[in-house]
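I'd like us to work through together how a protein chain folds, taking it slowly. We need material for that, and I hope you will provide a protein of your own picking. Go ahead whenever you are ready, and we will take it from there:
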Amino acid sequence: MSQSAQTVSVVKMYAPREQIYARAANGVYANWRWACVWLTQLIFYGLPWLSWNGRQAVLFDLAARKFYLFGIVLWPQDLIYLALLLIIAAFSLFLFTAVAGRVWCGFSCPQTVYTEIFMWFERKIEGERSARMRLDRQPWSIAKFSRKASKHAAWGLFALWTGFTLVAYFTPARTLALEAATLALGPWQSFWILFYGFATYGNAGWLREQVCRYMCPYARFQSSMFDPDTLIVSYDQKRGEPRNALAKATAKNLASGSCIDCSLCVQVCPTGIDIRNGLQSDCIGCAACVDACNSVMDKIGAARGLIRFTTENALRNNLAPKQIARRVLRPRVLIYTGILVLVMSAFWVSLLTRTPLKMDVIRDRGAMGREVEEGMIENAFRLQIMSTDEHPHRYKISVTGIEGISLVTQDEVQLQGAESRAVPVTVHIPKDKGKAGSNTVTFGLQAQDDVQLQVKEKAVFFVPR
């Protein structure tokens, strides 16, 4: 074969990105989505400024290794609660997905929430969908540059505020604000504010649907949690097809096919899909297409619900809403609910009944046990005491388990609220008491002003052979 006859074919692994100009949707689901935006952001931006017992209500103080959650103080030893919270979050997501598909993605996911906020800025500065498309087609001018610069400035300021707020959960917000105002931020604080700010700016301003399509793994395994009775955003093909152009949308035509092919459902979609092609992994379940289609149906005098939250079984078998509701309590939903209730119950019972006092006893391994004056056997220990009570207490230290055992060092210790302290103690027993080798002893810690505030911990006293 001659060189001129050879052909070269290029196979593209990824389709080029097409710019999506999402149209604003109005309706019931849009109102719910904005309610979720307001609720989540009021909590996120407001919590760092709430005070509790003279300190920040929610603070993860990594330097002091203490986590404050309103009236609860957690130490690194309490990481079991973090594990339980992650399990609760996972099974909650499984439950919501089994019942209502990607409702989390469409209404409460941070990527969705911040994309919605950034799109609001975009609409206010550059205009609605058609105006933004015209602006992007225009050659660069002072007017176009000023609009684009204003939009990105608004995005940047909001992103920096978001980064500042996130860091304020780890550094007291008022201290952080004062340091920022006086340009005295530390290098790590500055880095994380800029890092999270840039991540917010990039994900919500530029990447948007690309995060949902390629970066988020949830879209890839969501189908494993779906079944024919899962509520998803669906297009009713039986009712919508064949499609009729708006000019031909007569009462007779609408009886056979209600879709007038206006494409509004595509224009309002933040990921740019056509829901009429069936369920797709890119669909985040925001229901913007439902609001758009319902508004069109109202205008042409047709019944709502051509696009709606429904199930595969309901579309196939023409199930009524009551029949759909009865299918909600199916085995996988009951299993997820049961596990979730058990884990949440265990979490709250453990949290509410935990003692606010912890003590770890660490024996000095440098000296296993030695004989001192007056025929006494001596062991040295370190008591690592942690208090989650935010009030100061004075504690009495005791030790039992061997006849004649006594503390040689201090037997009292003062702890401030939510304080951790290592207390070295030395213990003696008479030479003729205890067996050679290991002996079990018990250390006790008792608050002098609260009989309920006490803890006991076992340790090993070593007698030389």
About this structure: The longest strand covers residues 376-387.
